[in-house]
TrEMBL record:
Official protein name in the record: Luciferin 4-monooxygenase
Domain AMP-dependent synthetase/ligase: 26-389
Record PANTHER family: AMP-BINDING DOMAIN-CONTAINING PROTEIN-RELATED, LONG-CHAIN-FATTY-ACID--COA LIGASE
Gene Ontology molecular function: CoA-ligase activity
Organism of this sequence: Zophobas morio
Length: 528
């Protein structure tokens, strides 16, 4: 087969005339009596009607403060029944919404705030000091509203009190090509940037997820709204009046309990956290018959772990997706259309998403390569970001308008996509490209290893030598020599762990479970 551009299925676009806020408001009216969201930690729920009432009251109060589509409204909170309400309210007014994650450091949040300079920040009570310190460090001044109690700042509770004109409220008319939502790039290889999605592009992400076919009648997630997955799940559940269930932390047994209790049909979780599910003793104690789909992605998963998950959830499919904050979901298997491929193409991130173009390019000469040839993944769709906020993004696109993902991958003869590694995370040893994730997959097959991350350490004239940080499972005492031998027997000569094995208690990760190799490498260098 010759080189070609892969094209996802077409579908009729429904979001060419409304803003993100109008979409949310209309869905609240349409599905008024259905359960919109459930706090799995507190076992509390809320209907779409209640969401509409509370978000309308907040929107009216934000209007009184002069908030319009020119303003940035920021949020910093763990998942709760309250934290999505002012986000929805701000969208009604066409304001640009952006989220911070409470687990980030003062230094990181200081940088992110300086990028977007918000007019108002909604913050949970537990993270108030974090935000105050960050604002001071960034030399920014903006209004703070607290989820909880405060004698110094306004509170969210005050903004949800009844308003006399709430029944007449309608969302503001907004240019759908204006920025609606911003996300921050991961920052695993450099300082984060603020990614801008217009009302049009973000709703395209929402609609594309619908046409990918996975069952979202009741979906559980743990990611905060800082991540595009959290926001996309919010939009996806609104689309057809589904129920979004959330919790603040991932625990294996508790997750199985929630699947049984809320009759969950789907779950989104990073691969690293799936081990908590497969380590639950006697899982047959729980009724998991409602469960249909485990959505995962972001980091590789071993074949052995995939098999364990399919055994744990015999009525469900494990779907490994590939996406980016800059463009949403790029590829995933359709549960019905691709049923014949899901179990035979383990390791693939599926077929190209609807209304998406994807090509594999040799980054050295810009030539499009054919099937089974590795190169940089590049993509184009209506869901693509409009650019970086207050930052030139021209270098992110090629001459044909395709986004340069920075990922190395390929597609096979059946059009199934495989992503191997970030270009910047690969390194060379004896002029050979070393792919850290492929060595990690081998390490995770060792029965005593809980987590691992691989990187290159300086090895003189021959280049960087592979090394690994390893977290052992509780009670295991495997030594470094045994692990090195285990890897040596399963990899090529150039992939041997010549840089050694470093045992650590934990591995640096983003809140969604992505490995931060740069920080892990810095830890290892202290032991070398």
């Amino acid at each position: 087969m010759s080189a070609r551009i892969l094209k996802g299925k077409e579908f009729h676009p429904n979001f060419d005339k409304i803003s993100f806020g109008e979409f949310l408001f209309e869905c609240c009216e349409k599905y008024a009596d259905r359960i919109c969201q459930i706090d799995g930690d507190l076992d509390k729920s809320e209907t779409y009607s209640s969401v509409k009432t509370r978000s309308t009251r907040v929107a009216l109060n934000l209007q009184k403060k002069g908030i319009t589509s020119t303003d940035v409204v920021c949020f910093c909170s763990t998942n709760s029944l309250d934290n999505s309400i002012p986000l929805i309210a701000s969208s009604y007014l066409g304001a640009k919404v952006v989220n911070l994650d409470p687990t980030l450091s003062v230094r990181n949040i200081q940088h992110l705030l300086s990028l977007v300079t918000p007019r108002i920040i909604f913050v949970e009570e537990e993270s108030l000091k974090l935000i105050e310190k960050s604002l001071k460090g960034a030399k920014l001044s903006c209004e703070i509203i607290v989820f909880g109690k405060s004698t110094k700042h306004g509170t969210f509770a005050e903004m949800t009190l009844p308003c006399g004109d709430e029944k007449a409220f309608k969302p503001s008319k907004t240019d759908i090509d204006d920025t609606a939502v911003m996300f921050f790039s991961s920052g695993t290889t450099g300082l984060p940037k603020a990614i801008c999605h217009s009302h049009r592009s973000f709703l395209q992400i929402v609609e594309t997820s619908f046409y990918c076919g996975y069952d979202c009648r009741s979906i559980l997630h743990f990611t905060t709204m800082y991540w595009i997955t959290g926001m996309a799940i919010l939009g996806r559940t609104f689309l057809d009046g589904s129920t979004r269930v959330f919790a603040r932390s991932m625990e294996g047994e508790k997750t199985l309990q929630m699947i049984e209790k809320y009759k969950l049909t789907s779950l989104f979780v990073a691969p690293i956290y799936t081990y908590q599910l497969t380590n639950v003793p006697n899982p047959e104690r729980y009724d998991l018959s409602s469960f249909r789909c485990l959505l995962t992605g972001g980091t590789p998963m071993s074949t052995d772990q995939y098999k364990k998950l399919t055994q744990l959830f015999p009525k469900a499919q494990v779907l490994f997706g590939y996406g980016m904050s800059e463009i949403g979901l790029l590829s995933i298997f359709h549960p019905e259309d691709d049923k014949h491929l899901i179990d035979t193409k383990v390791g693939s991130c599926g077929k190209v998403s609807p209304r998406t173009l994807l090509k594999i390019v040799n980054p050295d000469n810009e030539e499009i390569v054919g099937p089974n040839q590795e190169g940089e993944v590049r993509a184009k769709s209506d869901a693509m970001m409009t650019g970086y906020y207050r930052n030139d993004s021209a270098e992110c696109f090629d001459g044909d308008g395709f986004l340069k993902t920075g990922d190395i991958g390929y597609y096979d003869d059946d059009g199934c996509v495989y992503v191997i590694e970030r270009i910047k995370e690969m390194f060379k040893y004896q002029s050979w490209h070393i792919v850290p994730s492929s060595i990690e997959a081998v390490l995770l097959e060792h029965p005593d290893i809980e987590e691992t991350v691989v990187f290159g350490l300086p090895g003189g004239a021959e280049g960087d030598v592979p090394a690994a940080c390893v977290v052992l499972k509780d009670g295991c005492t495997t030594d470094k020599e045994e692990i090195e031998k285990f890897v040596t027997e399963r990899v090529s000569d150039k992939e041997k762990l010549r840089g050694g094995v470093i045992f650590v208690e934990s591995i640096p990760k983003t809140p969604t479970g992505k490995l931060i190799r740069k920080e892990a490498k810095e830890i290892a260098e202290k032991f070398v």
